[in-house]
């Protein structure tokens, strides 16, 4: 009986699936990782809606409806810090070096971590949405709009995850690998995520209106509300896809360089 040899593509898919299962098992053994990732965004959601929400005017929208898109992006930015940490742990522990010495697809080592990040972040995002629903969030979006929101969040998660791969491969300390995510978490505060940009001072308003978070947040907000998204959709996709392409290229270049 003969077996059909595997193609390089099927070989890579199989190896990635095996390493994805390994990483997911680690996450399942430590579910507090996902819970911790979701706790900070949920705490911010509660704080801004119930403490500051009454003092912030966002037009006809309820503040929880206005706020949720920005909190979803913060959830992803918080979650990818754990991706960088898991990769750093494998690198510093010699696991990556051992895997690279085995007959497996070289890209599978990174893709296993990246796909684990996507799965873990989707769970965290679902938890945040459930809390928002309990707080009164309501959406007039149809199925296609929800799928569009999911697609944007997936591309955004992939882009930030590949960005997280770089410090995961190069950091020398735990503080170094976790610190890179702080600017990403802070960036939504200088956008339309929490308040309309119209009330911001000139230079701050210009920055807020021309940075990626604002276009992504405005697109998701309009999709949730069932409103036309206009050019914001294409600007948001351009930012997400552009960041994904650049981050993936830099991460793979860093991986090849560190591989020696």
Automatic annotation (TrEMBL):
Every ABC transmembrane type-2 domain range: 32-258
Main localization of the protein described in the UniProt heading: membrane
Compartmental location: Cell membrane; Membrane
PROSITE patterns: ABC_TM2 (PS51012)
Pfam families: ABC2_membrane
InterPro entries in UniProt: ABC2_TM, ABC2_TM_bact-type, ABC_2_transport, Nod_factor_ABC_transporter
TM ranges: 34-60, 66-88, 109-137, 143-165, 177-195, 233-251
Source organism superkingdom: Bacteria
Membrane topology of the entry: Multi-pass membrane protein
Keywords, sorted A to Z: Antibiotic resistance, Cell membrane, Membrane, Transmembrane, Transmembrane helix, Transport
Family statement drawn from the similarity comment of this UniProt entry: Belongs to the ABC-2 integral membrane protein family.
Protein name: Transport permease protein
Species of provenance: Terrabacter aeriphilus
